[in-house]
Amino acid sequence: MNWVKVRRKLIDQKYLLLMVIPGIIWMLIFNYTPMYGIIIAFKDYKITKPISEAEWVGLKHVIEFFKDERFFLILKNTLGISFLKLIIGFPLPILFAIMLNEVKHNRFKKVVQTISYLPHFLSWVVLGGIMITWLSESGLLNELLLSMGLIKEAIPFIAKSEYFWGVVIVSDIWKELGWNAIIYLAAISGIDQSMYEAATVDGAGRLRKIWNITLPSIAGTITILLILAVGNMMNSNFDQIFVLKNTLNADASDVIDIFVYRMGIQSGRFSFATAAGLFKSLTAVVLLVSTNTIVKKINNTSLF
Amino acid sequence: MKKRLSMLFSVLMILSTLASCASDSKESSKNASEAGTSSAATSDVSATPTADEPGWKSNTDPVTFDWYINFSWYKPAESTTMISKYLKEKTGVSINFIVPAGNEKEKLNTMIAGGSLPDMVTISATEDSIRQIIEADLVYSLNDLADEYDPYFYEVADKEVLDWYAQPDGKTYGYNNSYAVSSDYKEKPETIETQQTFLVRKDMYEALGKPDMRTPEGFLKALEDAKAMYPEVNGQPLIPFALHEFSDTGNYSLDDFLQNFLAISKVDADNKLIDRREDPEYLTWLKTLRTANEKGLISSDIFIDKRAQIDEKVAQGRYFAMLYQKSDVVSGQAARNLEDPNSVYIAVDGMFNSNLDQPKLNGTSITGWTQSLITKNCENPDRAIQLFTYWISDEGQRDLYLGKEGESWDMVDGKEVMKPELKELLVNDRDEHDKIVGMDPLWMLRIDTKIHQWKPEKADYLKQMDDWTIGKSINYAAFDNIAPPTDSEQGIVDTKIKQAWGLALPKLILAESEEEFDSLFQDFVKTKTDLGYDKLMEYEQAKYEENLKKLPAQE
After folding, report:
1. In Å, what is the CA distance from A138 to each residue of A6, A149, B55?
2. CA distance B494 to chain A (A)
3. CATH 3.40.190.10 fits B33-185+367-454, yes or no
4. Looking at chain B, which residue has its C-alpha nearest residue A68?
């Protein structure tokens, strides 16, 4: 590629490029500048002195984090919740999108779609408050289950560690199912209709068409989203867990994000909390890159 | 379909960018206005300060202070209230209060790190941040300011308080509120307050024949009987026993609170600090709660409910008994009283030690509640210290509590008496009273032992609780502020132990058998020791001994 060509291309796309600038500035200010602060993970930072004056301590805080008596517990919770969310929560929107796509009654389809992504617009603070009431021993769910005779006595869903993972996973899937399906619906709507017509002529049934046309056509989208989802595994939805956690389920609800919050904001151990946060981010990068590589080898689609 | 979706996406993206812009601009304009309001007039320093006359009299030019209050629940005093107007009229000072919108620590730490502390700050007296900002030289020492601008400060400030809060350099940096000095305990015992009470619902308690709830057996039986007699309150199950909310570090009701009720000493015979958690009396009561849970008398709600849900349940009268601060049930009590005056909560004897000794509750102490400090960002430190002098003085205490004579109160037979209509408003509609008179929100330098004489008579159902506490308060000042700085080695140990206790406590109560309880408690003791409890104790013991030296001898 020579420079003239590049320049012409740039000039051709000048309006598009202009539109990119605000995004870049935003990223520089909010994503890149704060990265400078990461260095406090390797220093003994006190808020009353500038970062530059803090003393270097090397990996002290990182090692301390690994040695923390709750380290393995929070790692288990973080990965456990995220892994289950991925296994169960990832395929469901795909299934939902395909099913919705097969519905021929347009009005019904729209109503279902709207209802399914409504919960997405409620914040976890609101929804969490509602859920605490619904799931309490005298709450809606227990009364429902009791009246149907499914259980003999009320189950304190959020007051026991053993139910906590179930509660967060199910509620997260319910909240985001419709929203996550949108992107697949968009991909499905981009499939060339003539393929379906040809398949009909060949005598393919509905399931066959889904299997041989719909799924392969959206495979690229699925792969990309899978890579992103794996990269996101270390992020256990902070808002959700923060609202739903309490001292009784602490053994199942303590995740890295909550730990960082507790150490940093509540206890004022900023360097230590940053070290823990940095560990989380680095693990996420490793996960992202390795999934990307694996997927690239298998079906030649990848993020980068 | 595709087109529509892409449009939807672009709309969403635009909306989200707009939203972030909007919040940014709001923030920056707020900052701008904050910066703009601070201090219009520069003061005249030429008048030489003397110790004979309060400094504020020499200069009453208008001046505005930005005052940060480190409590997100605080409702600022409006500038339109009678007292705010009177303050401005008399001294020229207007105060612009800044209150954190969310987490207090987050806001305070951001201001400290960003060097943007306003003119004055008020922080809970036990908060570690105070030490941090003093060490970082972000605040003026009151001594320096008083020496330079207003020597009269020493005339009104309590020497005992200044000594108590003196830093290693011999200077005092902040002044506290709601404190009591040692002479108050002797001369004005009726002004000493404690908030710690054991409450029961009056109608239920009386229907049960006023059972003796001082012993574990009596306590359990009363809870059982209450549950049997009143399985439901307004269609919802009765909660036999309630506590303050459980936090990451334990439960206030079950830590200091219960230990005080059981009159467990904080030191042993050799004046060495002990861990009151290991006291057999205390363990007996925790085991009693475990038994209560086994009998179905502990609802899981009490482990989950936050302050808002507890307040609601108090107002609904869903609890039979509670180990709870009386100041925190005031609004709930009003609701109960409105529904049925017989169904309010009353303070009774409950949860005593095996000797049935009177409880030894946290009384008002020299430490007080909050501390107010003047920061180095203050452009008019002279006016700031003069405001402190004024407010701490008897005159200021009266002005900022009652307001202006003739407007909100009158002198009747040599006694200050509130205007009857305002007094009625104070009892019936506190919010409205705050808007008109503005008495409640100005507590930053209020000294309760001084204003006690002007306090209006409380409603019966509140007075009952107050009366019960009289004579049960102990001055625990020597044990205040002995905790290590949070970022020190011992401080980290302290936090870890507290968090371990926060996890252990609910498990102890929910334990299925006494053996399980014992083994869980042993686990906690082991964790505590492994984490370095001895180091922590060593630090606290040294601090405690320092405190003893600072305090005037107690009888």
Report:
1. 68, 15, 62
2. 11
3. yes
4. B496
